[in-house]
Amino acid sequence: MAAIIDPRQGDAEDDASSTKQRSLLSLAGSLLAEINLPKLALTWVLLIGAPALLLGLAPLVASIWLSTVSAKVAYALSGLGSALLLAGVVALGWFGGPRLIRMAEHNFWALNSLAVQPIYAMAREALRQLAESLLASTASAERRAALRAAIAAVAGLVVAVPAVLLVVLVWPRTRWVGTAADLAEPSQLALAALANGFVLIVGYFAAAALVWGFADAAMAQPRDIRFAPPPEPGRRRWRIAHLSDIHAVGERYGFRLESGRAGSRGNGRLRHALARLDALHAAQPLDVVLVTGDVTDAGRSAEWAEFFDALARHPALAERLLILPGNHDVNVVDRSNPARLDMPFSPNKRLRQLRTISAMAAVQGGRVRVVDVAAGRIGPTLDEALAPHRAAMREFADTGTLHHILAMADLWAGLFPLVYPPDTEDGLGLILLDSNADTHFSFTNALGLVSAAQVRGIEIAKAHYPAARWLVALHHHVVEYPMPAKHLSERIGTALVNGSWFVRRLQQILPGAVVMHGHRHIDWIGACGSLRIVSAPSPVMEAKDDKPTHFLIHTLADGADGGLDLLEPERIVIAGEPASEAATVH
């Protein structure tokens, strides 16, 4: 049966969300044309408008309360009333404190991810692109690093100055002290509150841009490194197969949403990579097979099923496999429509997280442990931590009912970091992080951050295993790569929103650690201060089926200073398959 259009080769619809086939401007145009404006308006009100209004209203309400109500309240709360109020405050802090802290932190970093980081990063990378184009090609690495640091500070100023001017412009409309008479004119009170909120947010924007700029300038700049020489006999080594962004799809001829027809179709390349890895393991055993996120293309059930089907053929690899969530596993709202968004109370995001939790439990549930941050200790295994929630998880997966949404959100937030304990006192331990920002657009699914609670979990793991060597794994890249780029779009890589802070904290807690990540599919190994950073290529993305791809097997050795030595990796090539020239449907 001859086909005019071979459906196995795909068509333009398969490129709808592809950043390889379409420009960012084209994708943005599609977003504006197809976005659901009522949902966007409601989401904006819930996530930005209402918090800004409440923020601006707070000083007005506080001043009204202090001036007119405080005396009456003080009288009413004397004796038994004050005791009841104290008990209520204690109960609120005890039962609601952790959730309120997470909400505050989420909103704080959401502001950064929506405004500060994208605008600051675009300014910084645009200036770097311009400066490096004027820099001589023979410039030394030290000079390039100094230039990158200086431009970070300049970018902070470039972003902060206009923000300060906006604050000065709006300041006359603000009002920070209210009276009881204002309650009779709520519209005027709301306008003053909006002006207050605008000034507070934009003022923070200016201050944060300066802090980001000078923090980036002050920190050690990323650089290429030389690998450690082979260790002396007797020193312990660990072989780590590092894969990332394998993007399992749910259809035999399905294309990936990011690459579209410019990438591979189906899961054949994934199966070839696993088969090659299994053969290598049989010849020279691996200690860990690490997949740093984007296990699936969009976090759908069929994609996870395809991943498990491929893995089932290689039980020896499954016994050593560790996975963690990437943005494609939890943050893609719609594979074909970047304009679609999830409402804050939508069950779909929690369902994607639930599938990921279930997959992690199936792969490594008995081998990794959660961290009890509140108690300051290493907690039970992942399987044990999930045991009380299994019935609720199954019910939510089956019904998607709203009354489980908060519980599922809390469950997800409390699972990370996951710790793969060292097998000996001074052995190798792995810390698995969730670096995904809580976004609602498919278009913004790639944003990432690491929460303060997870960093506290790293501190607890270090204290529990003080002599261990550590490998820290996450999905997002922690710094932008120190390499020239032909186009500005190649430089805006959505590194961690709080990447500078995270790197500085990690240098303090685990100065000799190795950090492994994926996300950008870029093969780069370097350092930032005392941290060694390994960015994984994708064995599936970035090439059609007839082109080769590769992944790396790393050898780590115990360092003399209690850290890790990073040896030159082994490059494993996955050969392409000849493209079929037949346009025949059988």
Task: Work out the helicity level.
Answer: 40-55%
Whole-number average pLDDT?
83
CATH H-level homologous superfamily name of the largest domain: Metallo-dependent phosphatases
Largest sheet: 9 strands, mixed
Low-confidence stretches: 581-586
Q: Regarding CATH, which class of the largest domain? A: Alpha Beta
Write the topology of this structure.
Layout: H1 24-34, H2 37-76, H3 80-134, H4 141-170, H5 186-218, E1 223-224, E2 237-243, E3 255-256, E4 260-265, H6 268-283, E5 288-291, H7 301-312, H8 315-318, E6 321-323, H9 327-330, H10 347-364, E7 369-372, E8 377-381, H11 382-386, H12 390-399, H13 405-415, E9 418-420, E10 428-432, H14 452-464, E11 469-473, H15 499-509, E12 514-517, E13 524-528, E14 531-535, E15 549-558, E16 564-566, E17 570-574
Parallel strand pairs: 2-5, 5-6, 10-11, 11-12, 12-14
Antiparallel strand pairs: 1-13, 2-15, 3-4, 7-8, 7-9, 9-10, 13-14, 15-16, 15-17
Helix pairs in contact: 2-5, 3-4, 3-5, 4-5, 10-13, 14-15
